[in-house]
Each structure stands twice: as C-alpha cells, then as structure tokens.
Amino acid sequence: MRLSTWGASKAPQVTSFVAPFIEQVEHASGGRIKVENFPDGALVSEQDVPTAIQSKVVDISLTTLGSWASIVPEAGVLNTVFFSPTGEGFEKAIGPGTKLFKTLDAGMMKHDTKMLCALYNGPVVVVSRQPLNTPAAFRGKTIRVFDRLTAQIVQTLGGAPSTIGVADVYPALERGTVQGAIGGLEGAVGLKEYEVAKYVLATNGVFGLLITGYVMNLAHFVALSADLRKIVLDAAYQVGRTANQAMVDAYQIELDKMREHHATVTVLEPKTPNYDAFKAALAPLVRKEKAGFSPALVKTVLDSLQ
C-alpha cells in the first residue's frame, strides 16, 4: 500500500498516526501487507487527495475532510459552524462505531473511498494586530481566510475576507495588508505569527473545527481478504483514538507556546458574554448552513453533540 501525507512531518496528525499504523498493520498481517510511506506531499498535495484516492494514485492518505465537501455532503456538514464538539467529546461524536462516523463512511463509499478515521485538529484561531475578541471588532477589518466557511464567518461578522496562501500570512500581517488571519493553531506557531501579531482569539468551536482524517481507496480495501480488511480497520480505529488524544494535548501545548512568546491569548469560554455574543452574531450563518443539508443529516450531527 502507498500511504501519503502532506504538511509538516512533525505535525501530530502525522507523527501520532503513520508509524504506529504501519507497524500494527505489517505486524498483524504477518508481512502480507507492506506499507510504503510518502511524507511531506511527495506523492499527493493536500488539495489533490480526493482525486488521488479515487483514481488510485495513492491507496491511503491524510486528508482534510473539508476538501470533500463539494462531492460528499456528509463531509461538508462537518465543515460548518454548528459541528463543534470539544476535544474531549470528539471521539464520542464521530469516533468509530458512532452513527455520525457510519454516515460519513457511507457517504464516502459512494465516491470510491473508505473512511479510516477522523482526527481532531482543534478550533481555528484568529491571530491579529489588535484585539478581535468581540463580533464588533471584526467590522470593517480585512481578515485572511482559507476556505468557504471561514470566508462566510468573516462576512457574517461584517469583515472583509481575503484568501491568501499560508506562506503569505506572516508578511501580510507584518505589512498590515490584513488586520487578522484565521487558521490552524499549529500553523500560527510554526510560522511564528506571534512576531507580527500579538493577539490570539482561541475560538473554542464557535467558528467550527479543523478536521483531518485518513481515507483509503475503496476498491483496494474491498480487494483485500476479510481478515486483512479487519486488520486495516482495527489499526486505523485504535491508532486514530490515540492520535486524537495526542492532538488534543498538542493544542493546549501550542496555545501555551503563543503565550510564551508574549501573545495575548483570549479563549472563548462557554457561558461568558463574548462567547454568547459570537454565538448570537453567527446564528444567521448557522440557520443558512442547516438549510443546505437534509434534515436527517443535520439531526445526525446535532444528536452526536448530545
């Protein structure tokens, strides 16, 4: 099998999954399965994963679930403001065996793909040159976004979204081309954005979540014998659980790193005025999002959060 990842090799979604998964699969299969690892986007880039999986360029790959939104509604519903389980509640909401995981897997299989695991990358953060800890603070500000959902969030709050690549975020903040940038916490730390913007808003799920995962070409999965299919799934499910815990822990460590570099970190805590204000400001977007999916799918998502 060819397994592909992109992004930093030291990212927890890579380090906590790839080596343990390969070791478990190769050991449990007695060498009948050999996994060849292609890291750092060497074989497939992040945006090309859906095509690469479906066309058998790669057998297994790390993926952002949001990248499937245009072809798999079940993946798209996760890339919304209203799907926001906590790190501790993530496995309960969408871990293997849950109704939501089964629903996502069924949707993926309609597009020649088998879901192996979903991984918690944490809530997005907003790094900014001045405090953006209230909805009113976003009005009239130009904010870097990275996908349709984050653009809709900024527009709903009265700001102007600007789509720029991750490598351009640092100079854009430094020059004031953008007043803030929405992105993953890991990237904000890795790119040292705290050097040019000293305020961090940890959105705590109010802006939705970043979710990655591992997927497999369905035809290759089905072609395996029943015992080998079980070995692959058992490894993915077990390693996925430990990877999720590692990623929850990493998120808190990275927040502390921002503080160590003298960034002022504001965490939107439930039942606080600012948290409630953002919830209220984004309520129209939530209504619009829910209307875009079937009632049954929305109910499955909301039930997973109970």
Structural class: alpha/beta
List the secondary-structure elements in sequence, H or E.
Answer: EHHEHEHHHEEEHEHEHEEHHEHHH
Oligomer: single chain
Gyration radius (Cα, Å) is 19 Å
Strand order of the largest sheet: 7-6-8-5-9-11
Number of strands: 11
Q: Identify low-pLDDT runs.
A: none
User: What is the distance, rounded to the nearest whole angstrom, between the alpha carbons of the first and last residues?
Assistant: 38 Å
The largest β sheet comes out as: 6 strands, mixed
Whole-number mean pLDDT: 95
Helix content: 40-55%
Q: Can you count the helices?
A: 14
Shape: globular
Hey, roughly how much beta strand do the residues contain?
A: 15-25%
Give an account of the 3D structure.
The protein is an alpha/beta fold and 306 residues long. It contains 14 helices and 11 strands. The protein has helices at residues 12-15, 18-28, 49-54, 73-76, 90-94, 99-109, 148-156, 169-175, 185-190, 218-223, 226-260, 273-281, 283-291, 295-304, and strands at 2-4, 36-38, 60-64, 113-123, 125-128, 142-145, 160-163, 180-183, 199-202, 209-217, 264-267. The protein has a 6-stranded mixed sheet, with helices on both faces. The radius of gyration is 19 Å and the shape is globular.
In short:
With 306 residues, the protein is of the alpha/beta class. Helix content is 43%, strand content 18%.
